[in-house]
Amino acid sequence: MYHLSTQIYLNILFIKQNKMITALTVNYNTPELLERLLSSFRKFYDIPYLVIDGSNKANYNKIKNFDKKYDVELIHINYNIHHGPGMTYGISLINTDQILLVDSDMIILNGGWLEKMKKSLRPNSYGIGYVNAGRDERGYIEKYLHPVFTLVNRKVILNYPMPDKSGMPLVDAMRALKETNNLHLLQEARWLTEDLCKHKCLYVQHGSDHMGMGTINATGGYNY
């Protein structure tokens, strides 16, 4: 059992006073990144945590005891499920009202951010996190909510396309939100944008120099 800090017990009080949140991470052949994430996360929060792992046997052997070490639910699949389908599978297993989507290359620096996200997330919103414009192989995306570090309402996201196997796994959901005039359901957390893009590093940071590239850099590509 992972030893909880005083900060965790303070944050448990916050969690118990609100509807429960489950954290979800998809991992592929990056045991070092995953351990760094989980160890830093558990310094501040003790919410339920689900890890969907598609690593090969050698890398799975390095993380197979993380369930006990970091008090997480670890589900191993004997193939590379990919980020989007992995999130979709995880979402299908979670029944809490909110889901915290966390990339495996994130590092948690301080507590307090979960409270900020929970307080700001409107009940009818798709989710809150880092939002910007982007472009995929089909063209321009007016708004894209990056699942790198995002709190979503489970019941709302189930009304839209689930994450898919692409470099922008939420792109179909974003297009559906646009087509139904519901882009207002995407909430930007400005403090998170500053942490991730302006290197304020008050709460969270990427473990790589390029946002969202930790697993890609560690495994040598998108591995499609």
Most strands sheet = 7 strands, mixed
Strand order of the largest sheet: 3-2-1-4-7-6-8
Calculate the mean pLDDT score and round it: 87
- How many strands appear in the DSSP assignment? 9
Query: Helical residue percent?
Result: 25-40%
Approximate strand percentage:
15-25%
CATH-scheme architecture? Alpha-Beta Complex
User: Which class in CATH terms?
Assistant: Alpha Beta
Briefly note the CATH topology name. Spore Coat Polysaccharide Biosynthesis Protein SpsA, Chain A
Using only CA atoms, what is the Rg? 16 Å
Shape: globular
Q: What's the number of domains? A: 1
* Number of H- or I-type helical stretches: 10
Distance between the amino and carboxyl termini = 35 Å
- Uncertain residue ranges: 210-214, 219-224
Helix/strand/pairing class, anyone? Answer: alpha/beta
